[in-house]
Amino acid sequence: MHSKKKTIADVSSWANMMDDLLTHIARLTRFPRHHIRMTAVCRSWRASLADQKINFPAVCLMLREGGNCDNYNFYSMSEEIFDELDLPELRGRRYWGSPFGWLVSHGLNCEIRLFNPFSRATFPLPKNHSLIEKLILSINPEEPNSNCIVFAIYWGFLHRRYIAFAKPGDLAWRTLSYDGDDDDDGFKFLIDVAIYFKCNFYGCLNSGKIVLFEDLHGPHPKAVEFAPQPPNFHGGLTCYLFALGENLCMTCRDPCDDDDDYEYNGYTIFKLEIFKLDMDTKSWGKIYSSGDKSLFLGNCCTFTVAAADYP
């Protein structure tokens, strides 16, 4: 009996831990599952940690289990473990990832929202009835004074591909105009990806040209040509923009030369060439090594991480 009373007293004392001490411990946690376990201790802890930012790993692979279940596995490369989460919020929705721990999802009812699978936080975005190809999250929406913008690359009228943007809470998407020449087939401009880099938003056309997004908070948002394509660049390739240290870089997937063996067991082998942009001269230089950085290519975001952080 004495042991049982002591256990109850111990639980009560943990529940009454000071908020400042609890939040300080939470800040020292490195992985989402530690934060989730802390919020599951008791209602008091859950309330105290409601506004506490979760530390997300830069590299976290999301896998869905088979069938129609709502279970998703998140693989942390640093811990080499899987965390299983039940996410009915994603039922019947397409979703795109980001390096910030957030997903951008699109439902059958054309509803779009930001969703955090660990904290279950969500932010609404305007509906879009077009055929969406990509949804790109530029910045972590939970960062202080975050200028969070989501870009949508979609197919519209007459099979034209457009890029529009919106912020959480906006009522409608705003389409970016472009003053460049139309292609022969009538496309306004084919943009592959968008990125937030040093307080500006940039895009990459499939021709390899870099455009700067201007007046996003004004009445006439537009994309203007910022830099030409890299030397000997062949248009129509899949392009990726990413930051490497203080540099804006681009890479593209290009099938190996005809002289090379570019097929292996039925798979096409691609070579990657990385170019660094000089922001002052608007000229490109080829990079032959990423140093201690590992490069991760994604269909909506590309980023680098320090290899030493993932031994």
UniProtKB/TrEMBL annotation:
Listed Pfam families: Beta-prop_KIB1-4 (PF03478)
KIB1-4 beta-propeller domain ranges (all copies): 74-310
Superkingdom as given in the UniProt entry: Eukaryota
The protein, known as: KIB1-4 beta-propeller domain-containing protein
InterPro entries (UniProt xref): F-box_BR-signaling (IPR050942), KIB1-4_b-propeller (IPR005174)
